[in-house]
Design a protein that fits this description.
Shape: flat
Number of helices: 10
Helix content: 10-25%
Number of strands: 29
Structural class: alpha+beta
Oligomer: single chain
Radius of gyration: 27 Å
Distance between the termini: 103 Å
Length: 453
């Protein structure tokens, strides 16, 4: 009787676990496809420069990536490799190290592309495999996935989990850089473990096809991680290889979800998006769009942003228009319907490129159009001081962080190229140099003492 009882219990357990057993077998990595994927994943060592109080500093970091074609192009994260990289070394699956070149980045999606030095590859007779993108639109919650990369420097590490959400919405900045990200896409959520060093590595199906690019973990959580969908990465990589960057349209609105607010605005459910903010002096602001308006249509397309996860779709619809497009926005303002005609501008970050001139002890950041509007900066110069090294020429001349350099020896300077040209001309000057800056919307003059050489 006891034996019969245990046999019955075992039969029930097998029946209950039958689905799980089948799922486990079907999720076993395909030996050929998965091995090819493993052979395409690389470790990326990056040396990047930044300015620190007028000095040039170099930092080193580690990330992951995947070789995506026979030409040696590698997809990774923008927070792993970007325009500040001065040296990139890629470790292939056979442990050979190869130099790589920065191709371009798109901080809005946290994606970047680098390329193996193919001359070096040929000279050394090196070989490599490349991976393939899968279709992230076909993913389902519960599917088994693998995160592959270089966590904490441990190359070619695979962790297993499932897809736990397909439309997570995050927006924010890349680490401490201030560069915006997450505005135009949602994220794949997984419980496959992702650690520092996994960034830029692939999230893959058992057959080895890449359905995401691993980007971030959630601080304070266990195995709660997020990846950029492969269908986003495919398009961004193509544009970066073709153009070096991704161009998007901008009108200057920040939409917000209408969830639970439809009755207040007397709107049907699933109709419209709340305009939370309108950027000062933006095309939308100039056309009469106001914060608090409800966006109902863009041209003939009805807008539905009841939930936060729908916001990136609205933003991406605008951004994907060719720069200079004419848009007609249909809005509900108060109780009245209004239309606003807008011509899109090129999207820019509010964060400009930073650089340093060490001999002068000067750190500078270029002023973008967005930042200039926010700060109500009207000068043509794009050169804002963000660092001054103690006891160096600019510090002795009492030039301060926040000053905008407008001229050197009465000659206007507006761009990075202007300033570097002036530095080259005057770096060994035997005469004092007159520096004009704008400080708190008024001009200020300072003397840069002549070189003592």
């Amino acid at each position: 009787m006891i034996l019969k009882f245990f046999k019955n219990i075992l039969g029930i357990l097998i029946a209950l676990l039958g689905v799980s057993c089948v799922s486990s077998e079907s999720s076993t990595p395909d030996s050929a496809g998965f091995q090819k994927l493993l052979d395409s994943v690389v470790k990326i060592d990056v040396w990047a420069q930044y300015q620190d109080d007028g000095s040039r500093r170099i930092t080193r970091s580690i990330g992951s990536g995947a070789i995506m074609n026979a030409d040696g192009y590698i997809i990774t994260n923008a927070h792993v490799v970007n325009m500040y990289a001065v040296k990139i070394v890629v470790t292939l699956s056979n442990l050979e190290k190869v130099s790589a070149k920065f191709v371009g980045w798109d901080h809005w999606t946290d994606l970047a592309v680098i390329r193996l030095d193919m001359d070096e590859v040929a000279k050394r007779s090196l070989t490599f495999k490349h991976a393939n993108f899968g279709n992230s639109d076909d993913l389902k919650v519960g599917e088994v996935v693998y995160a592959v990369g270089t966590p904490h420097g441990f190359a070619r590490t695979a962790t297993r989990g499932i897809v736990s959400n397909l439309g997570r919405f995050f927006e924010g900045t890349l680490l401490d850089s201030g560069y915006e990200t997450g505005n135009f896409n949602t994220w794949i959520q997984t419980d496959a473990a992702i650690n520092p060093g996994n960034s830029g590595g692939p999230l893959v199906l058992p057959d080895g096809s890449i359905i995401g690019i691993n980007t971030r973990g959630y601080l304070g959580a266990n195995n709660l991680a997020f990846s950029i969908p492969s269908n986003v990465a495919v398009n961004i990589m193509k544009l970066i290889i073709q153009n070096g960057s991704v161009k998007r349209s901008y009108i200057g609105i920040e939409p917000a979800p209408l969830q639970d607010m439809e009755s207040f605005y007397d709107l049907d459910v699933n109709k419209g998006a709340l305009i939370k903010n309108v950027d000062i002096l933006s095309p939308a602001a100039n056309a009469g769009v106001l914060a608090g308006d409800i966006l109902l249509k863009i041209n003939d397309k009805e807008i539905d942003a009841r939930f936060p996860e729908q916001i990136p779709g609205v933003m991406n619809f605008i951004a994907s228009m060719p720069v200079g497009s004419d848009l007609t926005l249909t809005l509900l303002g108060g109780k009245k319907i209004k239309t606003c005609k807008i011509k899109t501008e090129a999207l820019e970050s509010r964060v400009g490129e930073e650089f340093s001139i060490e001999k002068w002890g000067l750190g500078v950041q270029e002023i973008t159009k967005v930042y200039a509007r926010e700060a109500r900066i009207k000068t043509d110069s794009k050169l804002q001081v963000i660092g001054v090294r103690n006891s160096f020429p600019f510090d002795i001349a009492k030039i301060e962080e926040g000053d905008i350099i407008t001229s050197i020896n009465r000659k206007s300077v507006c761009t990075k190229e202007d300033l570097l040209e002036a530095f080259k001309k005057y770096e060994d000057s035997k005469e004092d140099i007159l520096i004009e800056v704008e400080r708190s919307h008024s001009l200020s003059y300072h003397i840069l003492k002549a070189s003592k050489k």
